[in-house]
Structures are given as structure tokens and as C-alpha cells.
Design brief:
With 310 residues, the protein is α/β, with parallel strands linked by helices. It has a domain of 208 residues: Aldolase class I (TIM Barrel). The protein contains 8 helices and 13 strands. α1 packs parallel to α2 and α3 runs parallel beside α5. It binds iron/sulfur cluster.
Amino acid sequence: MWSDIKEIQSTDTNVKKFVFTKDSAVAESVLYKYPTYEDRTVICCSTQSGCPVGCRFCGAGDNFVRSLTSEEIISQPVHLLETTNVDVKDIGRLQIMFMSMGEPFLNFKNLKIALNKLHELYPNAALLISTSGPDVDSYDELISLSVEIPKIGLQFSVHESSDEARNKLIPFAKKLTLSKIAEVGTKFHSTTGRKAFFNYCVHEKNNTQEDADRLLELFNPTHWEATISVICERDEHIAAANKRQEELALDFTTELANRGFSTRVFNPAGQDDIGGGCGQLWFVQEWMRNNPDKAKPSIGRGKEIIHCPA
Ligand code: SF4
């Protein structure tokens, strides 16, 4: 399956990174425990090697190699769970998230196979898809599958409150507008009974009252919950998500809660020393640099590269 799997332990003992490589691809997964694997285990795994979407804050977005096969997707959580030495049945809360590298809906055929298989292997696992919202036909299929598999969750990476600002951050042209995303999430909730999430990375230019009001106009709290993420710098030299960013996230979370949203804050561990945060992917970036013949520049990536959504 893979010719090499590296396990990298953070100084924060609650998080480990895994780098899977073979001649034709690289994938990364992250394993978190809160505070023990038995209490709560969270896995972030990859659906593609590199990513064609090219989000400007993301270390995977510079290059695209190929979509991962269903076996390659499945192998990541299977391997990570084996390393915990815990019987999966004894895990109180298990979450497998498709949000490390790659756009899940640009590899939906293989993701669907993986969702079915992982549900069969680990019926207690929540299977959470986090998407930038490419303009594809697969959302209805996912919603139907989510009725069959009641553990599937859906989150959209929104990150800005207007299409104009979002287009700068996520330059991939063939994506849903914010109002289309709102329609899909509303349909997901109406059909499955489970609310959709929008994920919002807060920075100093998208945290105003007007931003919160626009989000409320777009995303009805009856159908949507909000994940507020602390920005993870993609560059290892400026890796720490600093205190100020945490404060920004908490303040904006209060704004959204005041508008009726159920909220949660996402501040991944291991950002400083292993790139445990979303979009950091330092080891992937290194593999891409060492394999320039396999890594094609992403469609979505413009010439200008910035380090975070600020
Ligand atoms: S954030 Fe996700 S969708 Fe955007 S480039 Fe990175 S992996 Fe792709």
C-alpha cells in the first residue's frame, strides 16, 4: 500500500502526525487524543495527494499530484487506530475527519467507497467531511448516503462573509457561491436531521459586526452550526497560533452565539513543532519540493502566495 509511514510525535503528547509515502503519492494524517484515546480520538486524513483548489493559506494547495484511491484513504485511519493500542469499541467518542489534504468532493467516487467501508469497520465513528464547496453534482448523493449512514457530518470551509473576499482566499474558480453553499447545508439538515457546519477562520479583517450579520443572513442557525477556527500558519517559521488569534476567534464566537448560532472553537494542537494544524502540511511541502516531476502546480493557485487569510 505505502512504501513508508513516518510517525512524528509533537512535544504536545496529545497529537501525532503520520506521513504516508510511495513513489506516486504522499498523504498526511493527524491523530489527536482528548485527553485519552478512550475518551475521545480525532483523526484528520487526506483524500488527495496535494490539492487542486489552491487555498492561499494552505500548504497542500501549491501542488496537486493525484486523487487517492479508496484503499489509500481507508488505510490512514486504520493505521492510526492500530497505533493507539486501544480497542476501537472502547473509544467513547471517535471522529474521522476528511480534512487534512485534498478536496473530498473532487474525489467523491473514492470517498464514498471509503465512507461505506469505514462505517462498516467502525460503526461508532463520526465521519466528518470538510469541503471548500466545489461546484460538483455529488452533494445530493452525499445527502442520500448520509441518510443511510447516520454518522456522516458535513462542514463547509467558508472563512469569509462575502463571495468577493472568499474568491481571493480560495481562488479555485469552479466553486459554489456562499448562497449556494447555504442551500446545500439547509438541504443536508432538512433531509438528515443533522445540522451542517460552516467553518470560519477569524482574522483582523473579517471579524466585524457586519461580517457576523452577513453570516446570519446567509446561514440560518436553524440549519447551521458554526466552527470558529484559530488560524494555523502554513509556514513553519511563523507557526505558533498566537494569543491574539485565539482572542479574535473567541470574540467572534461570542458574536455568532449572540446571533443564535451553536458554536465551537477549533484550535488544533501540534501547530508549533509538527504542523499539526489544518493547512500546515510541512512534510507534504517537502515531498513536493523533492518530487517536482510528480507535483503539478494547482489550478487554483495564483502567483501570489500569502501565509494566512489575514
Ligand atoms: S484548504 Fe483544503 S481545499 Fe483548500 S487547498 Fe488546502 S486541502 Fe485543498
